[in-house]
Request: fold
Amino acid sequence: MSDVLELQGRLVSATVDAPDRDVVGRVRFTTLPDGAAGNPFTGELAVIDTVTQRRWPAPDDVTQVDVGDAYVYPGLTDLHSHLGFATLPLWHEPTRTSPWLHRDLWPGADSYKPNVTWPAYAYLKGAPEELLAYAQVRALAGGTTSIQGWPAARGTPANRLVRNTDDDLERDLVRTSVVNLSAAELDQRRSLLDDGHTLVYHLSEGQPGSLAAREFAEAATAGVLRQRLVAIHCAAVGDAELRQWRVHAELAGEDSPGAIVWSPLSNLWLYGTTTDVVAARRHGITMCLGSDWGPSGSKHLLGELKVARRVVERAGLDLSAQDLGLMATANPGDVLARAWRGVGPGRLEPGRLADAVVVVNRHDDPWENLVRATERDVRLVVMDGRAVYGERTLMRAAGETRTTAVRIGAVTRHVPLRDPADPTRTWTWRSVLARLRAVQSDPVAAIEHGLEVETALVQGRFDHAGAGPSVGPRRPPLVLEPDMPGGPEAVAGPPPPGTAFDAPPLPTLVHDRTWFRDLDAHGFHQGVLGGLDELFDREDDR
Amino acid sequence: MSGTGMRTHDQADEGPPHVAVRRHAERERGGRPDSGLARALDTLTFRPLRLGPPPDEQWMVLGFTTEDGQEGEVRLEWRFVDPGRPPDEAHPTTAAALATAVHPERAIVRRAKKLTFNDSLWRTERADLRRGSVTGDPGEGWISGRFQDNVSARTVTVDGREIGHLRLWSFDLADDIGFVHEVVELLGKLPQDGLVVDLRGNPGGLIWAAERLLQLFTPHHVEPTRFSLLATDLTRQIAAARQNRGLLGPWQRSLTGAIGTGELYSQAVPITPVGRCNDIGQIYGGPVVTAVDATTYSAADLFAAGVADNHIGTIVAIGDATGAGGANVWNTDVLRSVLAGTAHALPPLPEGVGLTLSARRATRIGPSDGAPIEDVGVTGHRRRSMTRRDLLDGNADFLAYCARLLDAEPATAMSIAWQAPTLRVETAGLDRVDVHADGRPITSLDVPAGAVDDPGVVHLDIDRDVEELRVEDGVGPPSPRYAAAPDADPERTPARWPVRARGQATTGTRSTTYSAMARLDVAAGDGALRTLTMPSSAAIRKSSTIDPSRSTAWARTPARDRTTSSGPIAGT
Reply:
């Protein structure tokens, strides 16, 4: 079996010149050694080698996977997530009767900490490896190969199946901030933008006219409304502010403003309104799609695509399936390519990162097919030139035989998980779920265990830190911290000592009946997202 | 230019002009490297003799190439220029002299240039100081008044758009009250929907003058920069000296306390009283861009810091930042005055010899709380370089850039009119306003969407006598960190800058009756306590105050308060 993988099927390359086009052909991946042309980074880099427009048997030194008539898309890129909250279901405050005005309000709700902050902390501390495995597999189930919003880590996760946009390839090229930045901090970020860094920044999350609009004004004054700003949300601002972004970018000598990551479900769920996508596009802002997090988001980009489709339909927006599909592929891919010295995902073109997703062909329009696709339709996912998720036969054809079976709704997929305690062994999905359920059943104990392990690590005795799937004799344990701030306001962090709480049940990896029921019954979307299961069109998946 | 020195034209190893400037910079001092370079450029042809030796060079040779390719050169001899003292200089024994932050050499060079290149203006400056108000049409060129050595203004048309250009040449003056009023007068003559406040080359001067100007451009409470003294026996004696107790009293207690605590510096205290920074309120409601460069010094540094830290507007820097002079400077005469009666009385100095001392160190407030200015400067929100057009065509590119920044600001506007018992509010770009009567909130009104040219209108009947009505849209300076405030629904803030003035004459009755808070059904939100006052007969914008007893009123700007605490927040 060769190290060089090639997919043969209906390629949806998302090229600049013909994004609507699909062709029967092959996409071949390769690994560029350190220092090779096209590899601006230290170490090896897996990229797309060739894209060819016809079927052809592969040479002996290439492993070809023929997916028949299935579509081969670029791997999806989710530029707004919080992996540390992936194991939580949708959350709502029972006593709240009107939409929240902005993001600083709901963390103070009575039910927030027991249902969100504290359980998330329990998973982070009690099962860090399992949490990341779960979050990655959930993303892969939606065809995602690059994802933003990883928890801060001390140590390296045993399993890296999805690319970390925050600091993969090279640290600090992309700077991320979930919290509001002060004027002084924004000044510093502007300097980073001047130096070619990219800033992914939660900005103006809330209703128009709310205090969240101030954040945009401060960003404008500080001069960070630039091409390399990737602003998450921007729901609280309108045409005038988005125009300001364009003008500021022009004045900085940039040919276009930056990007907005649109998370319509989270916006509608919490605030009853969402980003002015049409105005943003009118001003040349690159629109990307983000699934956000468990408590108010979809489970992955295939879910968020359907929410976006629903919003487009209800609001009568002039956005096609291709427009939406590009928000999950080429658009964020181009944003990352700009950040990563020209190398990014999102298009099936030579030199692009070696990611792809194979989706069942159920519609002649490839982008309509993607928008309608569900977890069951995702047959294979390739990241960094390697099959990381898929049907058993395709995984084997791609050379991945040591995998564990994962139940994805009504279907089974296979994932090459490695045991954190002994990476030479396959890690079973059953053991991942068992540990996560153990955390869910006794979150306080999980936190205590995790903190004991961390203490042992700090004291240099991790070899004897005690039991726990995350801790083994061969490698130091992974320590995760929330990507949101703790402290007195405690958007994330532990419960007070002695506080008992019940963590919500571990959700499934798919948009299931429970999720749709919650969506119908709660949130402030004013019915816009009611009956969303119609768009998933896969009753047997649930 | 081919160089400087005894003979440079034919020296093959002599570099281009920037090399000459860099060499000269090695002998000059600046708060920052780039400000040292800028100062070197400044003093390459102007050498202040007050604080330095005469130039080593006897003459300067300028080599040049004409447009048709002919090479030539010109030899320039040094000339002695005495620009004299500023027309409104503070007497060394006055409080104003102690409240000075100036780069003395830069100040002399500025005046020398004025004498050299605009001697007619220089010759009339003392006479102008005695005459009346501003005259002239800013659309036809620079206008100024009594303080023509310090400020002038004009209207500039850029790409069909008129903007104001307020040139703050210097704060080197003694009468801050007269100066601020002149600026108010100038602002009233300029276009109201965009202004460039230009401090390039401003060497500083009276701190009060600089910091009191800030209030004219913001609806919010202004916090001035704070200053601290090095905690030594000398500074304790100075603060304790009888003649200094009034002015240095606020520092005295912490200087004494530092003996026990070991603190290096005294408590940081404003030199400009907070009340005087807020005694007029906003005059200019349009968006403001502030221009600085590496020769923007001292009190002008403080002005720039105030713009940044009070969220007044965008700072555009030619180069990286201001000149980085962040100290209260005392000259020989002031030093002699403050040391009188102490054990460190200044001995007589040789004739013609003087010194300056950076006495109190400035530290910033707000988002940069505690950060020094000295040797750091105030970084621009935008960095620009001068272009050929800027140099030869009156800052054409620079002003075009600023005009586009101003034009990009989202527009909001508000005007109010009071005819008892009805309050009429016109708005554009706002969705809610809070109404206050005699300092207390009475209601929060949803207002219809409107544009600047087609405002939304809402009326409110107020069935009681009031002395003062204040309407505001709740916009505060962008708050970098604010914590969760559950159910604080009144927290609404629309877009920021008012750009169009809509004056309304107001009439009403005066009464001493105060409304009761208990009658109100809408609590004020975070922004409601951020108050602003406006002259009610003129531009009444996003926060406006009416004193019904007067058709024209200067509004006061009470202290801002916050209903929410600070702290980091996060989003989804």
Notes: The first strand of chain B starts at residue 59 and ends at 65.
